[in-house]
Write a structure and sequence with these properties.
The protein is mainly beta. About 10% of the residues lie in helices and about 50% in strands.
Length: about 300
Amino acid sequence: MLKHNRYFLWLILCMIALYSWTVADGADIHENAGTRAMTFLKIGVGARAIGMGESQAADANDLYASYWNPAGLAKIQRPQIGLMHNEWFEGINHEFIGFVQPIGNAGVIGASAIFLSFGELQGRDAEGNETGTFRPYDLALILSYARHFGSALSFGGNAKLIREQIDDESAQVIAFDVGGLYDVPNSSLSLGFNAQHLGTKAKFVEESFNLPVNIKVGFAYRLLDDAFTIAADVNRPSDNDVTTGFGIAFIASDVLHLRTGYKYTLGGNDLGAASGITGGIGLAIEGFQIDYAFVSFGKLGPVHRFSLISNF
């Protein structure tokens, strides 16, 4: 038991060190804010994860793990298909579709797509005159692979083709994610790590921009025969202050799953303390997992996510 507590203690110390490294910048606008391309990559997928305050680095274990920590895909034992719809602000829609397939001892492979649509916008020239309408969008096509290395350790990764289209101008880039997951032996504790959006610069018109790289670490602890989960993440983005996410999940019955969480930016949430609150509910019915998540954005109001997983 003492040995397992040491793993937990080391994780807490790492989080404290990361906090201490960045807290001095928390009260000011980050020097890289607004300087990254393809920022839609920062919008999470899957209602279960969102309802838990996005604390999924060590808890991701379904096809949405391709976003939170691709190493979690190694836990999947049956083929899965997933769909998500996210009602964002001002008519913006955020969609996800994915498929994963276990391939025996060789691991798990997957493919998915993320699409962000801004609807129809009015174009204008340099003098402000109308030039017609256009439909900007962002798209990411993702190939994933994960496998176990022994009974406790797994690694996974994504290769992503990312495209951004605005009227007649576009940019595309290749990026990668690399994740690791460690289930502490003879314990209910898991530790996770994910380096997201590593890639080349995106050139749009005349300028090139870096991607919104993010380093994510976290833990998950399970109680009551895995019916109750406590999870926490720390994120170190390249273009903003450090964020932390906390979440709990409770399997009330074979059918009903309940979740809540909170996401906090060091230095304070810009839209008020209430803007970090999340919650959700899930229904497991004959091979289907149907999930809903509510996210408060304080002064801007709430957004809603719906997602589905089919196991077959």
